[in-house]
Amino acid sequence: MTGRVSFVGAGPGAADLITVRGAKRIAEADVVLWAPSVVEAECVREHARPDAELVDFSRVADADVVEVYRRASAGRLKVVRLHAGDPSLWGGLRDQQEVCRRLGLETDVVPGVSQVSAAAAAVGRELTTSDVAQSLVLAGPESAEHVREFAAHGTTMAISASGARTGLLVEQLRAGGCADDTPVVVAYKVSLPDETVVQTTVGELEACVKEHKLYRTTLFLVGKVLAEPAPRRRSPVVEGDEPVRRARPSKWSLRANRPVPKPSGPAPLVDEPVTPRTDPDSPSAAAWSAVHDWQETARTKRAGAKAKPEPVGEPLLELVVDQAESAEAVEPKPKPVVAAAAKRTTTVRASTTPRKQTASRSKKSKRAT
Question: pTM to 2 decimals?
Answer without folding.
Answer: 0.64
